[in-house]
What does this fold into?
Amino acid sequence: MKNMTHVAGGKDDFQTVTHLTLTGSQHEIGKALTEEARRLGWSPVPADPIVNRARRTWFERHWPQHHARMDGAAAALGLDPDQDALALDGLNFVPEGSGCSALWVPPSAAEDGHGRIGRNYDFFPMTASEIMGQAPRPNELPMASRPYVITTIPDEGLSSTVITMSDLDGCMDGVNSAGLAVVLLVADFENAAPPESAGPQVGLGNVQLPRFLVDTCENADQAKQALLGAKHYDHGVALHYLVADAYGQAFVWERGRDGSEHVIEFGDGPLCVTNHLLHRHRDPMNLPKDTETSFTSYGRLRTLYEQSKGVTMTPGDLRDSLSAVAQPEDPQLPFRTLWSTVVDTAERTLSTRFYLGDGRGYSEELVFSATER
It folds into this structure.
């Protein structure tokens, strides 16, 4: 079953937000997602047949939920699910230069005992063509102007609610019915580089990775094992991920410039993340000065740490911390905070405010549950 509602923004606002709720088998969910993507102008991309066959095999073994949804995509497209010429899922490309800030407040530091992630999603308010240095195409909309909130309630397994900017089979923020929450952020802003290849590879694309976790994991320990055992690849700038669960555990997962994998934990205390590699700068009080290419990553992390260390925080305090590091409405700056989310791992909810445009502020706070049936 498919239910689609408009939840924020209007014709004169920067963002128009859609909440899409899908129930049924993973095959049916994949078919419905593909039909919606086609309505928005998506079509499958050609793929190397050898790579594509290996991708399907990897998904079948390690992410069967996604594999079943790809079979649903084939049904929507009238294709043989075993064909090798076309990739039946999204490209999951994040252009160079997006930012973001996030703060995990564990249950022990929360006034009501609920662990929460607060995050700002910072991105260009521009079209994909403009981001790539070209003139916008006729009628081309800004890349982040039509975000989706997607709730999936499969017949079997974990239900979830996610927010995605432009890929219906990936996500930027997510929480599942077990209380596992994931948000993604740029990992190494100062060393970002264009992708060498835009084609799909075997394993998890960087925007698929959070979706993989909310589909397959119930707690932080399971997520660590899933990430360390998975194949994954980046398109464009590398990302890292803040993962937290309903039991009060949290970590940041990132890869080093040499491909090494790192799980960063800060014990039973707040965990702050912005846009530099934490395994290279573990001490939040001993960070480098920001440069023209660091996008104030170090300063934003210092602010989050100073506002959260040694204090008990309410949801309002967490919102105030996010506001302190939000992007200003400055015409000289290329970024805006396009949404601001608080994930409550105890309640299994996403509470989000969406950007409506300079001078228009944000939508009212909207609450989405991962457990409603």
Observations:
- The longest helix spans residues 26-39.
